[in-house]
Specification:
Low-confidence stretches: none
Strand content: 35-45%
Mean pLDDT: 76
Helix content: under 10%
Number of helices: 2
Number of strands: 6
Structural class: mainly beta
Length: about 100
């Protein structure tokens, strides 16, 4: 088991490729556990960069959200026992050729 540090970086200056740390989180601060098994206890799902939220599965059965600004954890849903596959949504900002006449 381990304790994991998740670090969220933001590109401050594109020309100089200067990155700054926006958030730094330790899994024990989120879950309260100090001895995690990655496959069984903590599964990282995604980060919502605009809302500063981290989505994860705790204990293999609970989908949770961690707000990095106010450092609060919320239960979203109990998954019932089977770990579903989560795929991140990535918007496509190009124009579709099918929209042009």
């Amino acid at each position: 088991g381990v304790c994991i540090r998740l670090v969220d970086y933001v590109l401050k200056n594109y020309e100089r490729e200067e990155w700054i740390v926006k958030h730094s989180i330790i899994t024990s601060d989120i879950c309260g556990w100090t001895d995690l098994w990655l496959d069984a206890d903590f599964d990282f799902i995604a980060i919502h960069p605009e809302c500063n939220s981290l989505f994860f599965i705790a204990g293999g059965v609970t989908l949770m959200c961690y707000n990095m600004d106010n450092r609060q954890v919320k239960v979203i849903s109990y998954l019932g026992g089977a770990k579903p596959l989560f795929l991140p949504y990535v918007p496509l900002y190009t124009e579709s050729l099918s929209l042009h006449c």
